[in-house]
């Protein structure tokens, strides 16, 4: 069983953009999106925008094609594959949606490296229209977390993942993220875990100004190259006593420093 569980955010962490904004911009719906943004929750707005695009004749194939153009750093692909090869359990917790995430991961040959994708559900209906729904149905059962958007509390998801996996024995978690929504799950981590906020993004700023709330050890990153280097360094730190995990890979971490220590 995997000793290290790596939990990734998706937007601006695995891919180097926000997938919602990317599709909206690529398909020419930015003006409508910005007009409606003050009137409804983001998740509901994405569903409304997909319906509007469908009414304009945009197809699900065009949406998929735009997603396949979303930027994904080659060394993040490498990091995912290496972490998996080293025996880590890889999971995603994202406020994007399942169609967007699966389309991008399949395009880059990464879908099978993840044991679980936690995100807003989506489906293509009988008319070929993409529908996007909230992870938590906030109209019937609000999650009650003041830190998170109404459609998804990543902290609740992280708590469920931790409680389930820890029944198998000792595990250590590495959480990677960038946004405000990644702060709540970061607070769920223990003092033997690690959190990797993207430097100068909202999660990094929240941790930097509220460092006493975070029990996990903090290691920042800025780009795909640093994500790969820092993630593999942390995996090495956890499994250092078992050299069989490490004999086939040069981790190249000699220049890595942690500004939070």
Automatic annotation (TrEMBL):
Keywords: Hydrolase, Magnesium, Metal-binding. Its cofactor is Mg(2+). Mg(2+) binds at residues 9, 11, 178. Gene3D superfamilies: HAD superfamily/HAD-like. Substrate binds at residues 20, 95. Signal peptide: none annotated. PANTHER family: LP01149P, PHOSPHATASE, ORPHAN 1, 2. This is Inorganic pyrophosphatase 1. It comes from Cinnamomum micranthum f. kanehirae.
